[in-house]
């Protein structure tokens, strides 16, 4: 399961695989829950700390996030191969193709800035929304007026944000495991998600429910479980869609079998 020579040819899988990937993520997490949760806590803390740097913090956190994703992909690859999970696994992105991975972060940052500019030019005013929501004397009509002004911009932003997420979803794994160039990785990831829209939709709904439930846990401690499971699901979906299997078995199923 290490060689991905045909990763530029994504498979098309049925919708049922979307839930199987989440189940596989849970199975991976059970292999070493303490280290996976601790690693996410530390990495998330570092990214958040970078974000607090005045002026450049937000950009820095966006640039290094793909390195964190790649680190978790390497960690789950180690678990999938039956190897012991170690801290250096989580540094695979920083120790390997760091610049290509950070390029993905740069593309996402620039795209988000452009999307934000477009939304603002269409009349989206987040400050006005907050002011109306916080006003004690605000009427439903006041809120309706602000929402009517903002909804076209919000829908436009969502339409533009969707392909950006599709393009960046598998890009870190494609770069780390297959040595893809950044722009190639973005294009292949976009094609893979579009081709597998049904299982990706099921997977997104399941992960969204998991994140919602985890957010109810005090101090967001539930994220220490939910986020490693999300990364495990991402790895399982990458394996299912891109990895080449000798027996041509569905990758999500075989990954689950390996962990049983």
Report low-confidence residues grouped into runs of 5 or more: 244-260
List how many beta strands DSSP finds. 0
The largest pleated sheet is described as:
none
N-to-C terminal Cα separation, in Å?
17 Å
Percent of residues in helical segments?
over 70%
Kindly report the average pLDDT value: 86
* Alpha-carbon Rg, integer: 20 Å
What sequence of helices (H) and strands (E) makes up the elements?
Answer: HHHHHHHHHHHH
Strand content: under 5%
Number of helices: 12
Structural class: mainly alpha
Oligomer: single chain
Shape: globular
Count of spatially separate domains: 1
Structural commentary:
It is built from twelve helices and no strands. It is an all-alpha fold. The protein has one domain.
Tags for this model:
260 residues; mainly alpha; 12 helices; 75% helix; globular; disordered C terminus
Write the layout of secondary structure elements.
Layout (H helix, E strand, L loop, with lengths): L16 H15 L1 H19 L5 H24 L11 H4 L2 H24 L4 H9 L5 H30 L1 H8 L3 H14 L1 H19 L7 H20 L8 H9 L1
């Amino acid at each position: 399961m290490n060689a991905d020579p045909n990763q530029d040819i994504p498979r098309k899988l049925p919708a049922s695989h979307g839930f199987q990937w989440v189940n596989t993520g849970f199975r991976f997490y059970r292999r070493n829950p303490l280290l996976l949760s601790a690693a996410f806590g530390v990495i998330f803390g570092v990214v958040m700390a970078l974000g607090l740097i005045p002026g450049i913090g937000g950009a820095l956190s966006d640039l290094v996030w793909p390195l964190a994703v790649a680190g978790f992909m390497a960690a789950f690859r180690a678990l999938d191969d039956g190897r012991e999970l170690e801290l250096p696994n989580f540094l695979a992105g920083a120790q390997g193709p760091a610049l290509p991975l950070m390029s993905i972060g740069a593309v996402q940052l620039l795209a988000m800035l452009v999307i934000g500019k477009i939304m603002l030019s269409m009349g989206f005013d987040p400050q006005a929304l907050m002011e109306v929501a916080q006003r004690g004397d605000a009427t439903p009509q006041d809120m309706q007026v602000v929402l009517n002004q903002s909804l076209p911009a919000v829908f436009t932003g969502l339409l533009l944000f969707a392909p950006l997420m599709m393009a960046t979803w598998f890009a870190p794994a494609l770069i780390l495991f297959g040595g893809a160039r950044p722009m190639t990785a973005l294009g292949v990831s976009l094609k893979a998600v579009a081709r597998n829209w049904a299982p990706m939709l099921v997977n997104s709904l399941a992960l969204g429910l998991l994140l919602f439930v985890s957010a109810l846990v005090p101090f967001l401690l539930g994220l220490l479980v939910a986020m490693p499971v999300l990364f495990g699901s991402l790895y399982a979906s990458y394996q299912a869609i891109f990895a080449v299997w000798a027996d041509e078995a569905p990758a999500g199923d075989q990954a689950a079998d390996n962990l049983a």
